[in-house]
Amino acid sequence: MALRQKIAVLIGGVGGAKLALGLANLQPTPQLTFIVNTGDDFWHLGLKICPDIDTLMYTLAGRVNPQLGWGVADDSTHVLDSLIRRYAWDAWFKLGDQDLALHLLRTAAMRDQVSLTDFTSRIARRMGIESTILPMSDVEMPTLIRSRESGEMSFQEYFVRQRWQPAIQQIQYDSGQGASLPARVDDALTSADMVMIAPSNPWLSIAPILAVPGLRELLAALPAPKVAITPVIGGDAVKGPTAKIMRELGLAVSARTVACYYEGIIDGFVDDLRNPPFHFAGLRTTRLDTLMTDLPRKVALARNTLDWVRGW
Amino acid sequence: MALRQKIAVLIGGVGGAKLALGLANLQPTPQLTFIVNTGDDFWHLGLKICPDIDTLMYTLAGRVNPQLGWGVADDSTHVLDSLIRRYAWDAWFKLGDQDLALHLLRTAAMRDQVSLTDFTSRIARRMGIESTILPMSDVEMPTLIRSRESGEMSFQEYFVRQRWQPAIQQIQYDSGQGASLPARVDDALTSADMVMIAPSNPWLSIAPILAVPGLRELLAALPAPKVAITPVIGGDAVKGPTAKIMRELGLAVSARTVACYYEGIIDGFVDDLRNPPFHFAGLRTTRLDTLMTDLPRKVALARNTLDWVRGW
After folding, report:
1. B50-60 burial, b if ≥16 CB within 10 A, otherwise e?
2. For chain A, N or C: smaller number of CB within 10 Å?
3. Which of B104, B120, B127 to mutate to test the interface with A (most CBs of A within 10 A)?
4. From the CA of B97, how many Å to the nearest CA of chain A?
């Protein structure tokens, strides 16, 4: 393998960002490209908001709110407070002032026909991020949630406004109305020495990426090692609704179920030490400590995963 | 005249807002409709900004920054600071956080096809403003400035970014591409017991209103008294570029010039005590203290103007 290994990572959400930080802190530094879920993106108060891209950028730039895992550390909410107090705004989505600055820039760029990919590159560079951050698509591909109680909802309606409480009946991934695989995403995957699927929510964060036309097929055909890391530890998710959704979809809450879900697109799976071992024909597995409670553990998981794959 | 007199006021800018506050504080309270210049409106950072409407609303709601005469009192600039510090934003237009909240709401409303008139009514009501505030048009009619040094500029480019320093060669008023006079503006003028032209900049604030198709003709034909108040006191403007522009356009800096500019649409003119008297055939004039340095003086000018017209 190359000295400066090229790694492409499918990623979304807070758990994914933790691994990203581990990878970005490896020595020697690999060449990293993050292919980020945009199924959560939405328009709110006239602003184009990309939660997963922002979480990743703030994390890599060292600006993320450490308590929440998203948003900007020590951010104020003067604009939001004014909206609520002066104009009775229904503030179910938290907008910090510093966060708003980025939403404003992005929205203005979108109105000026700048692509989300170009805008993201520009901002990431401005934030001092050396890795490449690619939205999975420049075309909007919003994930929709269907529940018995609430019918069809936008992702943020489900995830933030209703705090992922409705029981999911079905998740509908958008296929971008015939949009093709972005050239830079294609390049990043094709030229990668290794592809990783971050320990993100498979159904909410990774599946939307796999729904980008051509991406799943490209991934399946790639000769490079492709490895996923379990988001399920000890029968539960570290954070967020992964386990709850698995139950609602009638699935066993286990790393095995996740590995099964990625069948055909991965050839390696990093399970957690705490989980009961399982074996699939044709799938390499290992068991590592995947709980990323601090930076050394994030770096360790990244290094151990790479070391394991290098030994194949 | 009716006990509760109906007054329609053509208005724009900080000087106009001072008179508006005087009128709104009269006892008995007249029924006030402000027809506001929107020639200064612009899009900035993807936001729809209406400086004259906002100045009027903040003034009437008691929220205006008393030092500046515009913007919100004690506003913070967390978003703007973040834009500058984090993203090297060229911050020539000041955006306070509370002000931003209003721009965001307006922009979202515009995107949802809400008219500027409806949005403004809703917000004014929310701010506790009893007067009616009508944009001169729901169609964008941007004023353009031409100068020898800088060529053609948007109004805010001239006024804010270049601090009205370029020498004006020509001012171009937009006629709204065949837009018709808004029904509510038509009603307000037609049903008014009196029409006032605020002591705003005639060339920058009032002329754009007069350029709304049909408005000048309607005004000329109205039987109600129509009275303008001088923005020129003692050979200068109280604030802003009125006198400078007059010189650049080759005009004498005098109240007489302003009265002349309004010829055919006013039948009364309130001059300032400090100015040399003049007489035009067919134009009633009076001389009052028009310097509105505090609230009592604002109310006094409003009351004295009304009393004078009532005595015709």
Report:
1. bbbbbbbbbbb
2. C
3. B104
4. 5
